[in-house]
Design goal:
Blueprint: E1 6-8, E2 14-17, E3 20-23, H1 29-40, E4 47-48, H2 49-57, H3 65-82, E5 90-94, E6 97-101, E7 106-107, H4 108-124, H5 128-142, H6 153-179, H7 183-196, H8 201-213, H9 217-235, H10 241-251
Parallel strand pairs: 1-7
Antiparallel strand pairs: 1-2, 2-3, 4-6, 5-6
Helix pairs in contact: 1-2, 1-3, 4-5, 4-6, 5-6, 6-7, 6-8, 7-8, 8-9, 8-10, 9-10
Length: about 250
């Protein structure tokens, strides 16, 4: 069944429904966009008024905060009505809570989360084409910026989650590429993941394997040496036994 609406929270905040498009400028300015994104990333459960206030204003709560919230919610409901979202759907308020309610709506962040899970499952099942397709969906969504002009703690936390999903998708793409003999592509995906998070041992292991499968044994060993140096200097620790095991298996390969 086709979704009733498509909600894009990564990149430019947008809602599409029946050929109509609602862009971020129609949500009531910066604060309205924050409200919509906050509710959109938490649509599975109602959020309290205190949570909404903190998400929008943090410690800079305006004196007439009740009026301000009511105005933002009213503006958002009006914008969704213009898309033809039927009442009482849109923004539901009950017992002092708020919730984004649009039946069968597709939300990009939710789809990315499910896609990367599917990709990893397909890879474990050696269904490479399905793994590749799902990982590409997840990577395409999560590489987009999330509210790039905002620095609220919940926004930063969401960015961390999105980048983690992006790295997971890249590692699936790397593994599929290597298994298909596309070694340079496998190396690039793993290198991008490791560059984004140098302490990600899964990315380190993926890059080692990609180089080794491409016949670059020395480069694979160098990746481990850099990883070990970073861990020692920054954490005072060694890489995990799993990472060391990959290194030793490559080292012993003639």
């Amino acid at each position: 069944m086709a979704p009733d609406a498509r909600v894009y929270l990564c990149g430019r905040v947008t809602v599409e429904r029946n050929g109509r498009v609602l862009t971020d400028g129609a949500f009531g300015g910066r604060q309205g966009r924050l409200l919509f994104a906050f509710l959109g990333t938490r649509r599975t459960q109602p959020v309290s008024k205190a949570q909404v206030i903190d998400a929008i204003w943090e410690s800079r709560t305006p004196p007439s905060v009740e009026t301000a919230i009511n105005a933002l919610v009213s503006k958002l409901r009006g914008a969704l009505r213009k898309l033809g979202v039927p009442q009482p759907h849109g923004v539901a308020t009950e017992a002092g809570t708020y919730q984004f309610v649009v039946p069968s709506a597709w939300i990009d962040i939710e789809d990315a989360r499910m896609a990367v899970d599917r990709a990893e499952g397909a890879l474990r099942g050696n269904s490479l084409s399905h793994a590749w397709a799902s990982a590409n969906v997840a990577a395409a969504i999560t590489r987009q910026p999330f509210l790039p002009d905002e620095e609220h703690p919940w926004v930063q936390q969401q960015r961390v989650q999105l980048q983690r999903m992006w790295r997971r998708a890249l590692l699936v793409l790397s593994a599929v590429s290597v298994r298909n003999g596309e070694h340079e592509l496998g190396i690039q995906h793993a290198a991008d993941a490791l560059s984004a998070e140098p302490f990600d041992e899964m990315a380190c292991r993926a890059l080692m394997r990609a180089h080794a499968d491409a016949g670059n044994r020395a480069e694979a060993l160098r990746v481990y040496a850099n990883c070990r140096k970073l861990f020692r200097e920054e954490l005072g620790a060694e890489p995990s036994e799993q990472t060391a095991a990959v290194f030793l298996s490559i080292l012993r390969t003639e």
